[in-house]
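Much of what follows relies on a compact textual record of a protein's fold. The record below shows the convention in full:
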Amino acid sequence: MRKNSIKNIRVNGEVKKELSYIISNKIKDPRIHPMTSVVDVEVSPDLKYCKAYISVLGDEEAQKDTIEGLHSAVGYIRRELARTINLRNTPEIKFIIDQSIEYGVNMSHRIEQLTANLSKEDNEEEDNE
């Protein structure tokens, strides 16, 4: 199975959906922030390894605590994944913090500030004329 085959894309989607459900509804660890989401999942073609990109809405401390909580619950998560998805191998999961959503929000905020400053400068120039 190639990395971008239809089967691999379907497996990635199914694992992402189940991981999201398990993390949000089944894990009761207080270290895991309630605003944790699975952004993307990459399952290797041999179905042995999985990279799960996690986004946490919060500060760096919340992100660090969430990753620690997920690492401590990786055995339970893998067992639940094996129970719900029928795969030849249940992949070993590696959780990675994804900062892309936070980066996008930050860039949007900067763009809004820039456009507000530019419109303010335009208004001041019109008033001076």
The mean pLDDT is 88. Residues 100-129 form one domain.
